[in-house]
Write a structure and sequence with these properties.
about 600 residues; alpha/beta; Rossmann fold; Glucose Oxidase, domain 1; eight-stranded mixed beta sheet; four-stranded parallel beta sheet; 21 helices; about 10% strand
Length: about 600
């Protein structure tokens, strides 16, 4: 079919459905003309949404306005009408260590819903997305799947740390404490973009590419480069081709590409937060996601990317070594190479001529950073539904198996205070509970705790277990996402000081050394620890959010609270009708 015969206004034409023969048609045309469009734009050209998460509060996103301009140029050159709108994009780092962190994970759901509302309200034909950081990238993928209109993702890229400009730069990770303290003082953000190690932000940018939702190499190109600008412009051009060929995310984000994303996540030493976001994305895809898939693959897939916190370098080094295409080429025997990407090529076609440019950064499979995949799921009587740890970031391999007495805290602040007061002893296991999706609420990251532990040289044999979560930067034996969480009656809520905790990462187990009868007896006398939460947003989130094992997704009318509320409202309605009926009868008797 000739391009001229292809109607690209597959959705935006419906803006006039039902009103073509009414005066209101002209009113709507005038509204569109007020945006600067002319009759040819309105009648013939597709409306392409540019979903921008730009704001001036997040250094990972402050450059996205410039990238949006590049996307616009590409769309205009290809014959589309670019229409930009923004959604929220909070900065995890700024929110870290205070009550602000409780609002970060809930923002993922708000971003998804806001994109859906804007795109559907204005009947946009396709969209190009711009995002850089933690919860925002997964939200973009969730929205893409939900809307299923032609979509290309443009990751904002990583920043450069100031330490990179030091004369003796050899990477951003080290085992030497004095060197670490020196470098940490210099690890400031020298440019805009996502923090350059393999935290959640860069992990999810890499997974966008692994899913096939970005142009090749887009996941690792540094933020402040001409290459990033050109990727943005080319994405704007390419979206028109996707629209012409009616290629949507449901053809790209399949069960096979989901498995590819898990494999890549394990190989790059990705953030443990992937175990929250991949299930949430799968839920939007209509796929049941069992966390055991991480254990299924981590025995087969080694950690091969030498990027902090699992390795010595940063994400810009990964780009110079060949980026995600080079990683995919290393993993080709494990991947579904027939998966389609937004480039129009399959994964197999993209990597056909790709070479690894630096084997110090992307290691051979037979000489990995760690012999297994980075993320591990632990289960046992302390975490019946699962818990998560990044084994590749545990520098002291003696801590892969560890047993010690529990020291229990009911909030992040309590354990931070104890650490700064030197109340924690070596050979102990810190338990931090009531920081899960409901208990937090909001499941905050405990980076303030983990960073304090890192800086205390004498605490080199301490493990940390929580129903909250960690930054992707976290290293050491830090086990998070314990499910069920304490707030809903999970066993972590009944652990007492002095209980022996057994951690066995090689065998994937996490147990408290008490009997099942003792656990049940304690649970029978248990009451949840309640925090004074006044935020309506957080209380709404608490009432709807599922467990971390399910991705902390929102379950709307299916929640018990919602059902009880409906029953209560119906009872009130029936009571009103009953009293009205009785009142009418009494009036008749009087008459």
């Amino acid at each position: 079919m000739d391009d001229k015969e292809i109607d690209l206004k597959i959705r935006s034409r419906s803006l006039f459905d039902g009103i073509n023969k009414t005066p209101f048609r002209y009113g709507k045309i005038e509204l569109l003309k007020a945006l600067g469009l002319d009759d040819k734009d309105i009648d013939n050209k597709p409306f392409i949404g540019i979903v921008n998460t730009w704001n001036e509060l997040n250094p990972g996103h402050k450059h996205l306005r410039t990238l949006a301009e590049a996307v616009k140029y590409g769309i205009l050159e290809a014959g589309g009408v670019p229409l930009e709108f923004c959604t929220i994009g909070a900065c995890d780092g700024i929110a870290m260590g205070n009550i602000g962190m409780r609002y970060i994970l809930p923002s993922r759901e708000v971003i998804v819903d806001s994109i859906e509302l804007m795109v559907e309200a204005h009947r946009l034909d396709a969209m190009v997305t711009l995002s850089s950081c933690d919860k925002i990238n997964p939200a973009i993928l969730m929205a893409a799947v939900r809307l299923d209109i032609p979509t290309i993702c443009v990751p904002g890229g990583s920043n450069l740390y100031q330490v990179r400009f030091m004369p003796d730069y050899k990477g951003i990770a080290t085992d030497n404490y004095e060197d670490y303290a020196h470098k940490f003082g210099c690890i400031t953000c020298a440019t805009y973009g996502a923090c350059e190690a393999m935290g959640t932000a860069n992990t999810t940018q890499c997974l966008m590419e692994a899913f096939g939702m970005t142009l090749p190499n887009a996941g690792t190109i540094p933020a402040m480069t001409q290459m990033k600008y050109m990727i943005a412009k080319n994405s704007g051009k390419r979206i028109i081709e996707l629209l012409k060929n009616r290629i949507t995310p449901s053809q790209i984000m399949t069960k096979k590409s989901l498995e590819n994303a898990v494999i890549v996540d394990l190989a790059i030493g990705g953030s443990t937060n992937s175990t929250l976001h991949l299930p949430a994305i799968a839920n939007e895809m209509g796929i049941d996601f069992d966390l055991e898939i991480f254990n299924e693959y981590n025995k087969k897939i080694p950690t091969i990317v030498n990027v902090a916190p699992s390795g010595d370098y940063g994400t810009p080094d990964l780009y110079k070594a060949g980026g995600i295409p080079a990683v995919l080429s290393r993993l080709k025997d494990f991947l579904h190479l027939d998966c389609l990407t937004v480039s129009g090529k399959t994964i197999g076609e993209i990597i056909r001529k790709v070479k690894v440019l630096d084997e110090n950064i992307i290691k051979p499979l037979n000489d990995p950073i760690f012999p297994e995949g980075g993320t591990v799921i632990l289960k046992g009587n302390l975490a019946p539904e699962g818990a998560v740890v990044k084994q590749s970031a545990i520098n002291n391999k003696d801590m892969l198996k560890f047993e010690g007495p529990a020291i229990c805290f009911n909030s992040e602040q309590d354990v931070t205070d104890a650490l700064t007061a030197d109340q924690i002893q070596n050979n102990s296991v810190i338990i931090v509970r009531y920081e899960g999706p409901k208990g937090g609420p909001g499941m905050p990251e405990l980076l303030a705790v983990t960073m304090t532990l890192v800086m205390k040289r004498d605490l080199d044999k301490v493990a940390l277990i929580t129903d909250g979560r960690f930054s992707g930067y976290t290293s050491g034996p830090c086990i998070g996402h314990v499910s069920p969480e304490a707030y809903v009656g999970g066993p972590i809520g009944i652990v007492r000081d002095g209980d022996l905790i057994n951690i066995d990462i090689p065998n994937r187990t996490l147990n408290v050394n008490i009997t099942n009868d003792e656990i049940q007896e304690r649970l029978a006398n248990w009451k949840p620890f309640e925090k004074d939460i006044k935020s309506k947003a957080l209380l709404k989130y608490r009432s709807l959010v599922s467990s971390a094992a399910e991705g902390a997704i929102l379950k709307f009318l299916y929640s018990i609270n919602s059902i009880l509320n409906l029953i209560f409202l119906n009872i009130k309605s029936l009571k009103k009708k009953y009293f009205h009926f009785v009142l009418c009868i009494k009036k008749e008797e009087v008459n």
